[in-house]
């Protein structure tokens, strides 16, 4: 009943703010939630909007689609970003050349129906939804801090790092979490231990834990970090689902699915209007909501730090330098 009630909640339009001197970055911005988020952001007339996409051709098509929603003539850049490839993530951030990023909305994600691996050797959902997004969030911190150092005028939001969450994190079974430190991600990357129905919820749970860990290391006076869930939306996320599970999902979407526009408004609300009180927290329907019981438990607190360490160890293993993200460390 809670799910049905939340899906039927009316999502209001987000009041425009002054983004005329701001740079907004959205990942997975060529379709679905990402594209609608870009459309909603344009109501606030950003100085610059960066569409981070895996396919530049589709990104340029998205830019054309957004032209009609861009009366202020905001500069819209299309940049290549593939979160299934650590080198692509690093190249993307390097391409920003240290320029300030005022608002970063990390939306890109996948839901695969079978075990596939990336060029870096990780299961695809695990890398795109968790490892790649975590790396991007780390590498963007200097850009967000550069934005925080700028003089701020009234009605201009503080720098925000908004990492898109999902209510499905509550459904994660995640038995691998009970393994000793250093073994959890290896187990998730083992095809013999792969459980398709649990994979997407697990990656969204891991992403939520990462965001909470990151927010504990970055003061809200610098950057406001939060995890809004857009709800169950009518997008292409489930396009590869087949069989009974696919049928049930598509039926549920037809009956209860929220529009991509309404889902996008939940993300834009978190990125533009929410204040320090939401730092490190999970939001749904534009309000702070409790995370899953696991996340809030003592076990969840320990798991949060255990997974932070495992994730950082992977970055070290791939010779990725994240020292600039924490200059005082």
Number of helices: 12
Number of strands: 8
The low-confidence parts are none
Main sheet makeup: 8 strands, mixed
Order of helices and strands: HEHEHEHEHHEHHEHHEEHH
Over the alpha carbons, how many angstroms does the gyration radius reach?
A: 19 Å
Overall average residue pLDDT: 92
β-strand amount:
5-15%
CATH architecture: 3-Layer(aba) Sandwich
| Name of the level-1 CATH class | Alpha Beta
Give the fraction of residues assigned to helices. Answer: 40-55%
Basic shape: globular
By secondary-structure content and strand pairing, the structural class works out as alpha/beta
Structure notes:
The chain is of the alpha/beta class. The protein has a single domain (2-318), classed as Rossmann fold, CATH 3.40.50. Helix content is 42%, strand content 11%. Strands 3-2-1-4-5-6-7-8 form an eight-stranded mixed sheet, with helices on both faces. Helix 3 (56-66) links the parallel strand 2 and strand 3. The radius of gyration is 19 Å and the shape is globular. 44% of the residues are buried. The mean pLDDT is 92.
Summarize the model shown.
This protein is of the alpha/beta class and about 325 residues long.
SSE inventory with pairings:
Layout: H1 2-7, E1 23-27, H2 32-41, E2 48-53, H3 56-66, E3 75-80, H4 86-95, E4 103-106, H5 124-139, H6 141-148, E5 160-163, H7 184-188, H8 196-217, E6 224-229, H9 243-256, H10 260-272, E7 282-284, E8 287-288, H11 293-296, H12 298-317
Parallel strand pairs: 1-2, 1-4, 2-3, 4-5, 5-6, 6-7
Antiparallel strand pairs: 7-8
Protein name: Ketoreductase (KR) domain-containing protein
Pfam families: adh_short
GO molecular function, one term: oxidoreductase activity
């Amino acid at each position: 009943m809670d799910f049905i009630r939340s899906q039927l909640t009316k999502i209001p339009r987000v009041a425009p703010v002054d983004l005329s001197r701001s740079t907004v970055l959205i990942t997975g911005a060529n379709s679905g939630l990402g594209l609608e988020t870009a459309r909603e952001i344009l109501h606030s007339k950003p100085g610059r909007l960066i569409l981070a996409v895996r396919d530049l051709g589709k990104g340029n098509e998205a830019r054309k689609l957004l032209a009609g929603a861009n009366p202020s003539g905001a500069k819209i850049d299309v940049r290549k970003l593939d979160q299934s490839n650590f080198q692509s993530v690093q190249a993307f951030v390097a391409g920003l050349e240290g320029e300030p990023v005022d608002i970063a909305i990390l939306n890109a994600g996948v839901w695969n129906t079978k075990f596939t691996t990336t060029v870096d050797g990780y299961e695809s959902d695990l890398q795109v939804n968790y490892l790649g997004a975590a790396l991007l969030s780390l590498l963007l911190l200097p850009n967000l801090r550069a934005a925080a150092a700028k003089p701020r005028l009234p009605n201009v939001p503080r720098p925000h790092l908004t990492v898109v969450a999902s209510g499905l994190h509550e459904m994660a079974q995640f038995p691998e979490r009970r393994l000793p430190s250093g073994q959890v991600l290896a187990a998730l990357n083992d095809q013999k231990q792969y459980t398709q129905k649990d994979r997407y919820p697990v990656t969204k749970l891991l992403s939520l834990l990462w965001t909470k860990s990151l927010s504990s290391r970055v003061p809200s006076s610098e950057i406001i970090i939060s995890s809004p869930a857009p709800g169950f939306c009518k997008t292409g996320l489930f396009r590869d689902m087949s069989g009974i599970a696919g049928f049930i999902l598509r039926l549920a979407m037809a009956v209860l699915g929220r529009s991509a526009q309404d889902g996008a408004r939940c993300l834009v609300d978190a990125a533009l209007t929410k204040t320090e009180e939401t730092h490190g927290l999970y939001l749904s329907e534009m309000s702070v909501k409790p995370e899953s019981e696991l996340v809030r438990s003592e076990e969840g607190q320990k798991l949060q730090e255990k997974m932070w360490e495992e994730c950082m160890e992977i970055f070290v293993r791939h010779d990725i330098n994240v020292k600039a993200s924490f200059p005082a460390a």
